[in-house]
Amino acid sequence: MLGGPLADVAAADDRDADHSADSTTAMQLRQRIQELEAAAMVAAGMAHDVSSIAMAILGFAGHIRLDVPPGSELEHAAADIERAAMRVGQLGQRYLAVANRRITPRTRVDVAATVREVVRRLAIGFQPTTEVVVQLEAETPIIIGDAVQLHQVVTNLVVNAAQALDTTPGTITLRLAHRRVAGPVGATPWATPDRPGGEYLLLEVADTGPGIDPLIMARLFEPHVTTRPSGHGIGLATVLAAVDAHRGFIAIDSAPGRGTTFGVHLPLG
Ligand SMILES: Nc1ncnc2c1ncn2[C@@H]1O[C@H](COP(=O)(O)OP(=O)(O)OP(=O)(O)O)[C@@H](O)[C@H]1O
Ligand SMILES: [Mg+2]
């Protein structure tokens, strides 16, 4: 055991060694986190692209199926492609839901361009009886946010609207407008936290479908809540996670037989 001045020097050396070991570990951890963040972003982007491509394949296969003789081999093949594409799309959505929990860098997002892109990509797979109307206010503001998440919000709401209409003739209307919200917005039954009043970008996705089943209304955004036989109940959970991440809120107007409007409010500035 050391004593006197030498002991102090040795102790100081130990402390320095501890500090530099600590800072090396902290640096390595930071680096590791950055690598994981980057990997998560790439994975999210890929999951997103896979979902979008699967939607397109689904649309094209649907067209083929309608064009070939019923009961023919080609019709069966097209139906197989549709099922496979649906499965790939659902897997992509699931990965996206997981990837949503990542922290992402924010960029300037032109939501109007996102809306146009999603409609162009999805409309090809819609029923011929579904009409799509896009009403974009001139010069809609730019959002500082996560482009992938905002793309998912629009996609999931539009897909749900199309599925709500199914083969019944009807209209999906997308609106984008600048809104001033007067006072704080209270938490809704589906647990969007309180939000302050102020300037918001409002994205509305409205359909003339049957309205939301009142039995699931209070649990609408919970994962795995679905009324569709092939549904996973992931779409709206993804939407809420993304809107929450942007400190926005969602308003819903829906009544049986009267259609449904989702109003996504994203804060500006
Ligand atoms: N526009 C809508 N009109 C009527 N009901 C809706 C609408 N959007 C959502 N819903 C209801 O909310 C449920 C949950 O929607 P969500 O998008 O989370 O899951 P899903 O569409 O069933 O499955 P997934 O999106 O995972 O494929 C749907 O099953 C449906 O009952
Ligand atoms: Mg859905």
What do these coordinates show?
A five-stranded mixed sheet has the order 2-4-5-7-6, covered by helices on one side. The protein has a two-stranded antiparallel sheet with strand order 1-3. It has five helices and seven strands, in the order ααβαββαββαββ. The chain is α+β, with helices and mostly antiparallel strands and 269 residues long. The protein folds into two domains: 1-103; 107-267, Histidine kinase-like ATPase, C-terminal domain (Heat Shock Protein 90), CATH 3.30.565.10. Helix 1 packs antiparallel against helix 2, helix 3 (111-123) crosses helix 4 and helix 4 runs antiparallel to helix 5. The chain has helices at residues 4-67, 73-99, 111-123, 147-165, 235-245, and strands spanning 107-109, 130-136, 143-145, 170-181, 198-207, 249-255, 259-267. The structure holds adenosine-5'-triphosphate (ATP) and magnesium ion (MG).
Concise structural overview:
This protein is α+β, with helices and mostly antiparallel strands.
Mean pLDDT figure: 83
Structural category:
alpha+beta
Main sheet makeup: 5 strands, mixed
Q: Can you tell me the residue ranges where pLDDT is under 50 for at least 5 consecutive residues?
A: 1-13
The fold-level CATH name of the largest domain is Heat Shock Protein 90
State the order of secondary-structure elements, H for helix, E for strand: HHEHEEHEEHEE
- Name given to the CATH architecture of the largest domain: 2-Layer Sandwich
The total of beta strands comes to 7
Overall structural domain count = 2
Strand order of the largest sheet: 2-4-5-7-6
CATH superfamily of the largest domain: Histidine kinase-like ATPase, C-terminal domain
* Overall morphology: globular
Q: Give the helix level as a range of percent.
A: 40-55%
| Rg, Å, rounded | 24 Å
Q: Which ligands, by name, code or SMILES, are bound?
A: adenosine-5'-triphosphate, magnesium ion
Classified by CATH, the class of the largest domain is Alpha Beta
